[in-house]
Fold this protein.
Amino acid sequence: MPLIRLDKFISERTEFTRSQIKSLAASGKISVDGITVKKSDTKIDTEKNTVSVNGQPISQNRFRYILLNKPAGFVCSTSDSDGTNVLSLIPPELRSKNLFPAGRLDKDSLGALLITDDGDLAHDLLSPKHHVPKIYIVKLARPFEINYINKFKKGMKLGNGEQCLPAEVRCVENCDKLAFVQICEGKYHQVKRMFAAVENHVESLMRISVGGLVLPEKLGVGECMELLHKDVENLFLPLDFEDFCAGYGAVFSAILINK
Ligand code: URA
């Protein structure tokens, strides 16, 4: 049973500094198993005790993993000069120090974005070595052409000569201007540039899976949820692209079709 100081436990999991925690405790805002604790240096058992601040229980987990369904108009960065940072969408009870977006979606893109304070996990997720696949649904300006499938599979050359790894693309059933794309890397504006290289144009783009983690249908655009341990493990599991396209066409096309 790992005993640690209450202020250390809270400061590692929230935005509060140790001096703020001291004042919160002194003013009766902190409880352990429902009992008010006024001294912030009290030792607690992290496996057994439930700590609450301002009535909100604090997660036991050392790191926080949040899945955001990013809306268009927000940027994936940690600095916030004009209030359009994705971190501003995280509700206070899920915030902690050092959160950052693990991956990039363009300002006009939407969909699955992991926000975490676990630098090692983010590194593994983004490292080209791990080739974690990501699936997007895109709305195209012109109808999908069957020849895209081979061109993407072979590894596409972008307009500036940059070479892409092999990728998968399929038209969404019953809609020739919607397509699913799976890529295992993250070049700048990659999906948009891949379609530009086949003389099409991406009008809207939504990321719908990262590894084996699929954006839940119930998570609306602009909403976020804390991930459970098993969801975090899913990030590194593969998904079958064909099965995915067959199963999710109707679910995600409805969101893009009206954009
Ligand atoms: N590819 C793009 O072009 N844009 C994104 O936001 C993500 C992948």
The longest helix spans residues 241-257. The chain has two domains: 4-57, 65-258. The mean pLDDT is 92. The longest strand covers residues 175-183.
